[in-house]
Each structure stands twice: as C-alpha cells, then as structure tokens.
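Weekly sync, protein design subgroup
Attendees: M.S., D.O., the rotation student, P.L. (late)

Item 1: inverse folding check
M.S. brought a backbone from last month's batch and wanted to see whether the design step gives back something sensible before we order anything. D.O. pointed out we never logged the input encoding, so this time it goes straight into the notes. Structure tokens as presented (174 positions):
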C-alpha cells in the first residue's frame, strides 16, 4: 500500500504513532523523549521528496520503524560522545569562534522571519502546543492539561505545526 503525503501522513500518524511511541519508550525509558522521537520520525518521513516516498517506500510501517530505530541509535551515540568529553575538547571549544559570518547571519535572520510568519499563520492551539513543547520543554501531558485537550491531541497539534513550519521554511516539498 502506497501513501501520498498530505492526508496520508495523518493516516500514517493515526495508524502507527502509538506503536512507534511504545517501541521508543521501551528502548529509551522516557515517555517524553519517546514522544519527541516519534514526532521526529514522522518529520523525517514528511521531509522525503514525493518521488522518493512513492518509489522507495512500499511498507510505510517498516520504514517508520527503521527511521525510529536510527534516531534511537543516533541518540545513544550522542550520549556516548558526551560521556567521552575530554579536557582537550574544553580547550578547543574556547579557541573556536563559533559565531556565524555576515552572510550566514543574514540567512539566519531571514529564516527566523519566515518562521515567525509561519507561527503566526497557525491556529492558536497548534502554535501554543509547539511553543510549549519546543521552547518551554513541557511534555505532552503538561501541555494537554494547559490546553484542556488530550495528550494525543497535543501530538496532532505539534505534528501539524511542524509540517506547516517545515513547508514555510522550504524544508519539505508540498
């Protein structure tokens, strides 16, 4: 069964997000992190080009599980690298100038302006759910309590907001 992106991403989300979140939770032991990994899995799927999705994904469930597995592996590697931090790393961090150059700074300002505009285009609940999650670091349950909706609805709000912002920032194809 092949899926087109727009409405079928929602269908895929409804079909598989709970299973993927449970798998992630069993692997990482943290419900909020599992929810974030699951959302990132769907964002990666949405980020594929339409032709790539159509030609190469015959089994979306398997593909999503594979992406989730890779995200979990990347997370574990990142944590392992953080544990192997040395004094030399500290010195290198102090010596490197990490400030962006003028061209990159201009590019980042434009991107921030497009993001601000995209956030303004969102329905209030979607925008609030995304900002509470990504900026304030609140989990789905806490956001659900603040907005007076279910945690599942919070997931849907965040996915909708992420898809909208990604399209506006030209990170995914329409």
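Designed sequence read out in the meeting:
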């Amino acid at each position: 069964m092949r899926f087109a992106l727009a409405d079928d991403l929602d269908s895929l989300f409804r079909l598989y997000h709970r299973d993927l979140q449970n798998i992630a939770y069993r692997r990482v032991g943290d419900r909020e992190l599992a929810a974030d990994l699951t959302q990132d899995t769907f964002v990666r799927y949405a980020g594929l080009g339409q032709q790539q999705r159509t030609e190469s994904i015959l089994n979306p469930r398997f593909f999503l599980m594979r992406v989730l597995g890779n995200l979990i592996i990347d997370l574990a590697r990142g944590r392992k690298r953080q544990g192997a931090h040395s004094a030399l790393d500290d010195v290198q961090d102090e010596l490197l100038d990490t400030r962006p150059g003028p061209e990159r700074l201009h590019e980042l300002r434009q991107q921030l302006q497009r993001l601000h505009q995209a956030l303004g285009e969102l329905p209030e609940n979607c925008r609030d759910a995304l900002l509470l999650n990504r900026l304030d670091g609140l989990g789905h349950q806490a956001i659900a309590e603040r907005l007076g909706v279910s945690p599942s609805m919070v997931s849907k709000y965040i996915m909708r907001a992420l898809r909208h912002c990604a399209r506006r920032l030209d990170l995914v194809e329409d």
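Discussion: The two ends are 21 Å apart (CA to CA). The CA atoms of residues 99 and 105 lie 9 Å apart.
Action: P.L. to compare against the previous round before Friday.
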